[in-house]
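From the pipeline queue, job 12 of 40. The input is one protein chain; the requested action is below.

Action: predict structure.
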Amino acid sequence: MDTEATTSAPADTPPAPSSRGFYGCAIAMIVALVLIALAAAGLSDFEKGLDGDGQMEQPGPDGSSSQPLGAGMTARYEDGLWVTVSAPRSGGDGVYRLNVTYENDTDGELHLGRTSLDRPLVVRGGGAADEDGTSDYSTSWVNSEQSEDALAPVIPEGESRVVPVLVKPSRKGAQVTVEVTPPHSGYRETAYFELSVG
């Protein structure tokens, strides 16, 4: 009797899972995250463009006359200019020295010298909120012309300039306000620094 060899067909086995699908999803997720990050950065730049490069952005006090910055603090402008006012140090004869440092991290050179009737740097007695200059004491800015001369040369991109300021208050413990209004083709906020001398 002839027997026919019967061969059974192999059972259908599911195909091995493809790693191509996994890698495709991972790449799609990475691309999506990069696009979200780029969109967030673009939105931040757009927001800065709306309020202008002359706005300040820093943690803590905002540098306004109602929330002045203190000694050693920095006013950070959105366009990359940073201005720091040091603590006053006694120089003898009732004169105190402080430094105003301008750091140019903008995309070009800075012209900070006087360009109109507005002064880019003002030092006066009294607190920042006392804009009318009324106080029970007086403060002399001993080297105002030299300070303005130090601001006149252009500050190249990536460089800084230190402007020395000498003040002589009529009494120890007096409040001194430094007002910084860097010139700009559009607008820059005035940064107020309130310091105590003596």
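Job complete. Helices lie at 19-51, 144-151.
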